[in-house]
Each structure stands twice: as C-alpha cells, then as structure tokens.
C-alpha cells in the first residue's frame, strides 16, 4: 500500500527531474532530539545560514560552527509550522530545499480536494423488510450508482432495482436514505446491495495510506501531477535559474522556465484526470431510474 510520504517522494523526484536542481545535502552524524538547538552533520560546508530540511521538519540555521556542529536559531525548530520531531543518525539534511515536503503535503491535499469529478466506489448492504421501504444509507454517499437485490433460488442472481428515490435530508442519523418503490417484488430478508459514489479521502498525516483513503493506484499519478503543478508555481523564475547555476550536480544545464514546466505538468494532470473521468463514466454510467 502506498503512503502519502511515498507520494511526496515521487512528487519531489518529478520536480527535481523537471527543474534540473539538486540541493546541497549532508547527513546527521548523531541523533537529534525534538528540542535540540544544535545538530551534528558530516559536511558542515554544505549547510548555509537559512533553512534546512530533515525529514518533514524545517529548521532555521544560525551558524555553521565548527567540528560539524550546526547551531540553529533559538525557537526555530519546526520552522514554518512544521512539527519538531526526533531524527535518527544518518538522516539526510537538505540545505535550502527546492520545495519543502510539508509544502508538497499541502499541495497533495489541495489536489485531492480539487478532484470533485473523480471518486471512490463503495458498497453497502441492507436487508429488505416487509413493513418498510425506506432505508438509511451511509453518510458518505454522494450519489447512488446502482441498486441490486439478490433473488431467491440456487443462482442467487443479483437483479437491478430501477425504481428508487434518494433523500439527502432524511430523518436518520446519517441524514441520508433510500426509498425502494419496487419493494413489493423483493421478498423480505433479501440482501440489497447499494453501489455508490463517495468522495476521495483527504490525508491528515504523511503516514496515511492512499488506499485506505479510497484513492486507488490508478489515481496516484493524477494527484502527483496535480500537486507538482501547484507546487512549481510557487517558485520564482529568477530563484529557479539561480539555484540551477549554484548546484554543481546540474553541470551547467539550465532548467526549463517555470511557465514551461508548469504547462507541461498541467497538461499531464489534465490528460490523466480526463482519462480517469472517462473510465469511471464507462464503468459506472449514469443510470436512469424511476422515482415513483
């Protein structure tokens, strides 16, 4: 199962490949507590005064110091609303990150919220009753895709229900209900399966699993392209070009302009989003059903 942290890694790799920028970095030579204001690194000359990133946390460097000891500004652990945590020996220390991981997390979250035309498909089951024809349905139902009931007999065939009404202001704890108008042909005690559309889940932490959030593998690249497109727009062209010149790993190769990179990422995002929208419409076409 893919975690949000792994998706952030994929976004970071994609952005670096498009921009040609590789930040200077080193690694910790000793572990760091969540409150320490000094860190020890293997290559202090690769750390300048300013922002560094270790894991998902940003810190503000005051001085390179000596003997590999980096001094942080007082109270600048968890810089820019990131969370101070412990860091193990050998953890990578990135100097002046191109786009911090916490920013990519925000853009991933924003992209998922933007994908209102893509969704996860879920099912719920109820048992038919002889005395009622209105049933409570889950609170996360956005739209019912199909309703089926299981017939009596050895085949246990699933038959479609073509006459029903959805109520999204129902007097139930979930606030949502389904009324079956053809309930008379469904014997009491039969299983009724509701296939419905639900919104994609929004992650709360980087350890969240995308599949648990209802985001299938086929949507991972859609989110990756969308998050990278949103993130790349935060970089100023002058800063990006300067970073490419400063980075020895680029060997003098200048990155594409911000507008070109952003345009390419948006085109990839829009193309894949449209593909997934068509796939869902093909698999779950809008079905007409009677409401009386």
How would you portray this structure in words?
The structure is a single chain. The protein has five helices and 13 strands. By secondary structure, the chain is of the alpha+beta class. The chain folds into three domains: 1-22 and 98-118 and 204-285, no CATH class; 24-97; 120-198. The strands form three sheets. The chain has a six-stranded antiparallel sheet with strand order 1-6-3-4-5-2, with no helix packed on it. Strands 7-13-9-10 form a four-stranded antiparallel sheet, with no helix packed on it. It has a three-stranded antiparallel sheet with strand order 8-12-11, with no helix packed on it. Strand 4 and strand 5 (69-77) form a beta hairpin. It starts with a helix and ends in a 9-residue tail after the last helix. Mean pLDDT is 89; it is low at 248-255.
Fold blueprint:
Layout: H1 4-19, E1 25-27, E2 38-40, E3 50-54, E4 57-63, E5 69-77, E6 92-95, H2 101-114, E7 120-127, E8 134-136, E9 143-150, E10 158-160, E11 164-167, E12 177-180, E13 191-198, H3 220-232, H4 237-246, H5 258-283
Helix pairs in contact: 1-2, 1-3, 2-3, 3-5
């Amino acid at each position: 199962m893919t975690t949000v942290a792994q998706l952030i890694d994929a976004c970071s790799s994609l952005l670096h490949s498009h921009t040609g920028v590789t930040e200077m970095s080193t690694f910790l030579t000793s572990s760091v507590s969540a409150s320490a204001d000094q860190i020890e690194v293997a290559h202090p000359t690769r750390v300048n005064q300013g922002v560094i990133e270790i894991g998902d946390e940003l810190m503000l460097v005051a001085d390179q110091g000596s003997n590999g000891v980096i001094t942080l500004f007082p109270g600048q652990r968890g810089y820019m609303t990131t969370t101070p945590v412990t860091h193990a020996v050998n953890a990578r220390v990135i100097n002046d990150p191109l786009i911090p991981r916490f920013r990519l997390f925000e853009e991933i979250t924003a992209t998922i919220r933007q994908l209102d035309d893509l969704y996860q498909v879920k099912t719920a089951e109820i048992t038919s009753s002889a005395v009622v024809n209105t049933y409570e349905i889950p609170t996360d139902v956005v739209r019912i895709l199909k309703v089926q009931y299981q017939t009596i007999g050895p085949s246990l065939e699933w038959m479609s229900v073509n006459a029903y009404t959805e109520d999204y202001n129902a007097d139930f704890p979930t606030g949502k209900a389904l009324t079956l108008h053809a309930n008379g042909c469904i014997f009491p005690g039969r299983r009724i399966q509701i296939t419905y559309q639900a919104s994609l889940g929004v992650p709360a932490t980087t350890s969240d699993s995308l599949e648990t959030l209802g985001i299938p593998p086929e949507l991972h690249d859609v989110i990756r392209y969308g998050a990278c497109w949103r993130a790349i727009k935060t970089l100023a062209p002058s800063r990006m070009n300067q970073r490419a010149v400063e980075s020895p790993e680029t060997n003098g190769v200048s990155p594409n302009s911000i507008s070109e990179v952003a345009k390419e990422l948006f085109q990839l995002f829009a193309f894949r989003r449209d593909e997934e929208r068509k796939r869902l419409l093909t698999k779950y076409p809008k079905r007409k059903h009677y409401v009386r």
